[in-house]
Amino acid sequence: MKEIRTEDAAGHVLCHDMTQIIPGVSKDARFRKGHVVTEEDIPVLLSMGKEHLYIWEKDDTMYHENEAAEILCELCRNDHMDRGDVKEGKIELKSTIRGLLKIDTGLLDIINSAGDMMIASRHSNTPVEPGDKLCGTRIIPLVIKKDKMEAVKKLCGGKRIFSILPYKNKKVGIVTTGSEVYCGKIKDAFGPVLRAKAEEFGGEILGQTLTDDKPEHTSDAILEFIRQGADMVLVSGGMSVDPDDKTPLAIRNTGAEVVSYGAPVLPGAMFLLAYYRKDGKNIPVAGLPGCVMYSKRTVFDLVLPRLMADDPITKEELDKLGKGGLCLSCEECHYPNCGFGKGW
Length: 344
Description:
Elements (H helix, E strand, L loop, with lengths): L1 E4 L12 E5 L3 E6 L9 H7 L4 E4 L6 E3 H12 L4 E3 L6 E6 L3 E5 L1 H10 L2 E5 L4 E3 L4 E7 L3 E3 H11 L5 E5 L4 E7 L1 H4 L7 H11 L3 E8 L3 H13 L4 E5 L10 H7 L3 E5 L10 E7 L2 E8 L2 H4 L4 H10 L6 H5 L25
Protein name: Molybdopterin molybdenumtransferase
Function: Catalyzes the insertion of molybdate into adenylated molybdopterin with the concomitant release of AMP.
GO cellular component, one term: cytosol
């Protein structure tokens, strides 16, 4: 790359895009990288404030920003993603499906700490729709050493930083506990909420079973749904620490392994997650507290996309939800485009 006076640039090849800003009208490249400057271009370039230009001089030890951007894009891009055109060292990725965005944050940190390049992204574990922007990448200088790009590629070891897990259209059984509902003294309000939330992610509802407060009846109802082929069982009610709230005991008595009883999320602190192992599959069994019935967003909204995408959840991950785990119950809800549940 060589700097020359604009008046002397006719016949030379530009090594980077030249952006022209017209306030209130446009901001775009007036001249693209690779453009051969003509005599007619010189007054336009001078009017853009370009008294000197950088022209391309081939150097086998350096990548042009756009060449390096292509490499950076390939470190990010995975299945179910579309990419934009390269422009001034920048490339954006968008989703082509409904699914769950996963990010290898360790690799992301490595690249963003390497210098001369950057990746800005959504949060990991965010539900995405077709056309949603996932990330933007950019090479900072006009040229970058090839050795630096090769070192970053080696650190990534062939892995991709981003992936999207499609939802699995799971079969879902619903068990609602409580003698007051079972005996018909009050109308069940859990069922419609859980149906709507599961179906939003492609779930097929096998049915809903009402049980009284006896834990053995709840355990039997859970196991019956599993025998019917349920990929997930949602158990609502009886999740507090009151003496007659026996749902956690009922879930344990099925033989399911409890990941966590309790989560640092409000609403939803009394959430329970367990996995029942059958035929090599881990079937989620979730105990849902009363807030899921009446609060617009709860811990259930954070875990459901992951369960529907067959993305196993650990206690350590649930523990991290405390950072951002407080829903502000905004008058107009913008979830998932807010800070709620972005800790993991």
